[in-house]
Write a structure and sequence with these properties.
rod-shaped; 2 helices; single chain; mainly alpha
Length: about 100
């Protein structure tokens, strides 16, 4: 047998029970919204902290990289324009191969 009802909404048996069901349903929806918001805030806080840690680490690494590059360039550049080294004087005739 197929049972059908024309009343698909709140049962009209007891008005106090109907008010209680509506209040409990509204409280459940409100609690879900509040807990969802709290979960969102916690997750957003974790993401922000991780982003700050990663950003700080990248900044620190770039700072060290730039500092290392500065030391390397200072080592290549002569201090005060003095270049140390050895030299040998060569006659012009020896370069052309004229005199043996």
């Amino acid at each position: 047998m197929k049972y059908s009802s024309t009343n698909h909404g709140i049962p009209a048996g007891n008005p106090i029970a109907n008010v209680f069901v509506v209040l409990v349903g509204a409280l459940a929806i409100g609690a879900s919204i509040v807990l969802g918001f709290v979960a969102f805030v916690v997750l957003a806080s974790i993401v922000l902290v991780l982003a700050a840690v990663v950003g700080l680490r990248v900044w620190w690494f770039n700072r060290k990289l730039r500092a290392g590059r500065g030391v390397e360039q200072r080592m290549k550049r002569p201090v005060g324009g003095v270049i140390e080294g050895e030299f040998q004087v060569v006659d012009k005739d020896d370069e052309r191969g004229g005199r043996t």
